[in-house]
Amino acid sequence: MEFAEHIKTANVEDVVLRQPLQPPSRGTLCITGHHLLFSDREESDSRQVLLLLRNIDATEKSVENLTGYSGFFSNASHSERMSGSSGTITMKCKDLRVLQLDIPGMEQCLNIAHSIETLSCLDCVSEMYPFFYRPVELSLPEQWGLSSPEMHYSQMKELYEKWRLSTVNRDYSVCSSYPPAVIVPKSIDDDTLKKAAKFRQGGRFPVLCYYHKKNGMVIMRSSQPLLGANRKRCKEDELLLQAVIEGSDKGYIIDTRSRQQAQQARMTGGGFESKSFYSRWKRFHRPMERGKALQESLIKLVEACGDESNNMDRWLSKLENSKWLSHVQNALSTAGLLVECVERDGHSVLVHGSEGTDCSLLISTLAQLIMDPCCRTVEGFLGLLEREWIQAGHPFQQRCAHSAYSHARLQQESPVFLLLMDCVWQLWRQFPLALGFSEALLLRLATEVYASDYGTFLCNSDQERCALGVKERTHCLFQALLRPTQRDYYSNPLYERTELAIWPSVHPQSLQLWKGYFLRWTQQVRHLEEAQEEIRNMVIEWGKLACS
Amino acid sequence: RSQISVPVFMFFLSFYYCDNGLSSLKMELLSDVSLLPGEERITDKDIIYICPFSGAVKGKVLITNYRLYFRSSDADVTVTLDVPLGAISRVEKMGGASSRGENSYGLDITCKDMRNLRFALKQEGHSRRDIFEVLFRYAFPLSHGLPLFAYLGQEKYAENGWTIYKPIEEFRRQGLPNNKWRISFINKSYDLCDTYPTVLAVPYKSKEEDLRKVAAFRSRARIPVLSWIHRENQAVIVRCSQPLVGMSGKRNKDDERYLDLIREANDTTKLTIYDARPNVNAVANKATGGGYEGDEYQNAELIFLDIQNIHVMRESQKKLKDIVYPNVEESHWLSSLESTHWLEHVKLVLSGAIQVADKVSSGNSVVVHCSDGWDRTAQLTSLAMLMLDSHYRTLRGFQVLIEKEWISFGHKFASRIGHGDKNHADQDRSPIFVQFIDCVWQMTKQFPTAFEFNEHLLLTILDHLYSCRFGTFLYNCESVRDQHEVRSKTVSLWSLVNSKVDMYLNPFYTPESGRVLYPVASMRHLELWVAYYIRWNPRIRQQQQSPVEQRYKELLALRDEYLKKLEQLQLSDSSTSSHLANSPTPNTTSSSTSTPSQQYTHLQTPL
């Protein structure tokens, strides 16, 4: 296999592993194409650490005895020097864990470091671990994922009257980031869709993502319209949107950019729906941070969280300066606005920013959680993520290539999905009974999105996934999470379904740092987790009895 | 005929309104306010409450000798206020007879519990004069020669809270006296130290005259005495005030020998003295005759814990109030919070207590003092004891802890809180006890299963810290309390609590007797206690009782119902089951003889 050329030293004895919350241990280190395996030598209580190399965000190495290094090439005592020296590799992981390896022998250390650096950021998707993950007890699934757009549509009988499933994108030629089937107004034919797609960035024409059963209003999402500097218009796009609000007086557009940003976008061919051509649509601008700014916010936050110095006087300022919590606040309040439009005001809404693959998904997902009790169970939530993130074409591969520790130059990384998990956690904290899943599920997803045994978060779109055979050759995370034991573990024993919307409070005093994620490798959070686990077990125990 | 009938009809209507109508309206408004036994109505008045959240609200205010009660009369907004007069620190007139602007004439009331109230009245006929005077008189009874409400209340409870703490019993629980420590009654008439309790635990080898000599060298005669002893390693927590070293650097051989006796008691090489103050403050205290233990104390090490004094804490809380009431700081919330330094002070108190607890659990005795040993010292010893001794983490044990370390050892509640006193700007005021309860809350957040009591207890304690409804927090020390016959003439807060225990229990409590709790005193892990400090703001999500706790209690209630049903079933089935019990098969025997109550206790073990 090609991986072998990156592995000069596969095994090292007498390595010391230091990891958070545990005493250092001495043992054997082994590097494979996808894993770092460490097993200590204690016969009785042997411990193994299996780390996915993909999980490693950054490595730092320091080799002791550097003066000896200069004599590296002198023939005499070459091997002695090598064996007398040692090195340390610090591995900073995407799950925010920091591990350290003390490796005897400079050459071995450098070899290992080189292997880790190379193998942890392979670009080729088909070489990634999910394609090799074959647990014995599982055969590859017949059907990958929980549902498909077709199945989703067929289950929503209330859609039949006014909405249809279009397969205009069956070969991904209309929109490369959409799934083959999408839900659109019944009165709009495929030719109109094709023309409307040409008027939207990346072909992401407006499609239905949520139908509010209580009043028949919908949430649509798309990318920005391509007006350009000379204010082009597109009859078909206007028709499509017109059809969405047929029988109603108006609709709302929530643009996740500021008015100014939206106007500037015209210079590069983009823009927004102008009042004169979309007269029955009222536009709101709710600027949300995205892309690089969001990634930098995460980096600052993680830096503040990992600051081990005793001088913690400035913690709250550092937390504020990272702006992470204000991004959380912003996302939740924009989602709140969306819910207000649909649920309280009774109007349909179109959501988009520029590409329509990040913030639009974030707020449409949050809005559905706030409004729709069906999305709040374990199955419902995973289904929602599958529709709104996997099928809808959030570019996971680009966004999650690196996390907060990486020294690599930022490209398209952006922790939008992590921000979603944080927002959902805030909802979960404010409504501990209304959500059917536990914090552990959010933690698991936030970890898996960066490095996983499963193929669920691979690739940037459905098209890429099909091209690489992800659905045939990898296991699906969501299916795994729904297997009985896992499902029990990830469910909330106190869950009580409520039909009401769960309006989060977005005051800064009501929002908190997600310690379970950002401080998860500290003793304190571990204690809290244990206590939560204890409470959980108590509740399950009594719950069973009370209901028997 | 019809022309005549109309005025009659109108007359009837107006008569109805004038008489029956108004009085019935009045009845309807405030007569249903349930008063405490012994509580008396003083006055009521139409008034406008300037609510910071919903604007000006018309309604009626009722003043009793215990509370200020307001209810809105508008149909569309319902606002009620129920404020014990004890919570009021200041009443001021706002605007004058000639001031312009709507609602500019009235009263401004500052409260001790993180809120202010503003009322507006009609600008005519000195309409606020009498209500101002009534409020001023009854909110500050001690400044007017009136008794505190605790002496007027006639409440009766099933439990007598005054019996919760018996010093000798508490010492016995700790295993005292023993061959190293004895109980001394030298202070039985408060003539050794007037701010100490009557019963003290001191080194076995110390003689009564030694204690008197030591008293001469300790500020306000607050000599080092035992607060707590570790059952296994016999290490102790000793508390006292600062030594009277002064500018000249006086020494006192008796004091030095006395501290060495404490060290000897559990045979360690070094005694650790924790001075709660910052080093500079301790040095500065020499100028006023105080100071700290110097090198002359052999076999002792001195550690400063850097906790600021009462004035700094008062200013910090004031700043905190500024950012949470009436409007919550929005745009730079975290840095504003940081600039109050409130959490930083909480951190320092907690980390001081952690050091004390850690030292003791590793087998070394410690002495804790600050200047007078009744503020920071009480915080440190009581928090350390809470970490070390799981008994204090029970509902009753926590009451004992407060009675012992705070009330009996003379935390100056009267001076710090200013019960019934009009001097709102008194320099003695300080939120030291609030800060302690905040630290306890931080611990309960970090160890959600380790405390038998819940947040509601902590909120109740703080409410009645000010209310003057109970005698518990009145006066500065035991000798003054005795003079005022607090125990015989007032009701204890613990009577209320222990008569309705269910409300204050944490359903997730899992007793673990041997465990020492070390909270993390890092800023990252401390939180602002929103449910206390921002509880008056309706826009902040109220989590007064966590829904999780609520739901769990429901499940417990269901369980009880289930067990009751099971019992009934078994009773009605008793003939068959007793028959079965006699059957020789061991399986059947065990299952049929396990009565519901046995199952109950069995099931309770995991809790």
UniProtKB/TrEMBL annotation, chain B:
It is found in: Cell membrane; Cell projection, Filopodium; Cell projection, Ruffle; Cytoplasm, Myofibril, Sarcomere. Residues 598-607 have a biased composition (Polar residues). One of its GO terms (molecular function) is phosphoprotein phosphatase activity. Gene3D superfamilies: Pleckstrin-homology domain (PH domain)/Phosphotyrosine-binding domain (PTB) (2.30.29.30). The active site is at 370 (phosphocysteine intermediate). This is Myotubularin. The keyword Metal-binding does not apply. Residues 574-607 are annotated as: Disordered. The gene is MTM1. InterPro entries: GRAM (IPR004182), Myotubularin (IPR030564), Myotubularin-like_Pase_dom (IPR010569), PH-like_dom_sf (IPR011993), Prot-tyrosine_phosphatase-like (IPR029021), Tyr_Pase_AS (IPR016130), Tyr_Pase_cat (IPR003595), Tyr_Pase_dom (IPR000387). Substrate binds at residues 309-310, 370-376. Keywords: Cell membrane, Cell projection, Cytoplasm, Endosome, Hydrolase, Lipid metabolism, Membrane, Protein phosphatase. It catalyses: a 1,2-diacyl-sn-glycero-3-phospho-(1D-myo-inositol-3,5-bisphosphate) + H2O = a 1,2-diacyl-sn-glycero-3-phospho-(1D-myo-inositol-5-phosphate) + phosphate; 1,2-dihexadecanoyl-sn-glycero-3-phospho-(1D-myo-inositol-3,5-bisphosphate) + H2O = 1,2-dihexadecanoyl-sn-glycero-3-phospho-(1D-myo-inositol-5-phosphate) + phosphate; 1,2-dioctanoyl-sn-glycero-3-phospho-(1D-myo-inositol-3,5-bisphosphate) + H2O = 1,2-dioctanoyl-sn-glycero-3-phospho-(1D-myo-inositol-5-phosphate) + phosphate; a 1,2-diacyl-sn-glycero-3-phospho-(1D-myo-inositol-3-phosphate) + H2O = a 1,2-diacyl-sn-glycero-3-phospho-(1D-myo-inositol) + phosphate. PANTHER family: MYOTUBULARIN, MYOTUBULARIN-RELATED.
